[in-house]
Amino acid sequence: MTARTAAVPTDALVEALANPTDEEIAPLDAWWRANNYLTVAQIYLGANPLLKRTLVSDDIKPRLLGHWGTSPGLSFIYAHATRLIGKTDQQMIYLAGPGHGGPALVAAGYLEGTYSEIYPDVSQDEGGLLRLCRQFSAPGGIPSHVSVPTPGSIHEGGELGYVLVHAFGAVMDNPDLIALAVVGDGEAETGPLEGSWKGVSFLNPARDGAVLPILHLNGAKIAGPTVLARKDPAEVRELLSGHGYEVIEVEGDDIPGMHHRFAAALTRAWVRIREIQQSARGGDWDGTRPDWPLIILRTPKGWTGPKEVDGQRTEGTWRSHQVPLSGVKGNQDHLDILETWLRSYRPEELFDENGGPSELVRRANVTGDLRMSASPHANGGLVTRDLEMPDFRQYAVDVPTPATVKLESTRTLGELMRDIYRDNDDRFRLFCPDETNSNRLGAVFEVSDRMFAETVYPEDVSLSRDGRVMEVLSEHNCHGWLEGYTLTGRHGLFATYEAFAMVSASQTIQHAKWLQEAEHLDWREPVPSLNILLTSTAWRNDHNGFSHQGPGLLQNVITTRGNIGRVYLPPDANSLLSVADHCFRSRSYVNVIVIDKQPQLQWMTIDEAVEHCTRGAGVWEWAGTDDGSADPDIVLACAGDVVTMETIAAAEILKKHMPHFRTRVVNVVDLMALPRRKDHPHGMDETLFNELFTDHVDVVFAFHGYPGAIHQLVHGRPDADRFRVRGFIEEGTTTTPFDMVVRNRVSRYHLVMDAINNARRTPPGASELKAWCQMQLDKHEAYVVEHLEDMPEVRDWSLGDGSV
Question: Residue ranges of the Xylulose 5-phosphate/Fructose 6-phosphate phosphoketolase N-terminal domain (predicted)?
Answer without folding.
Answer: 21-382
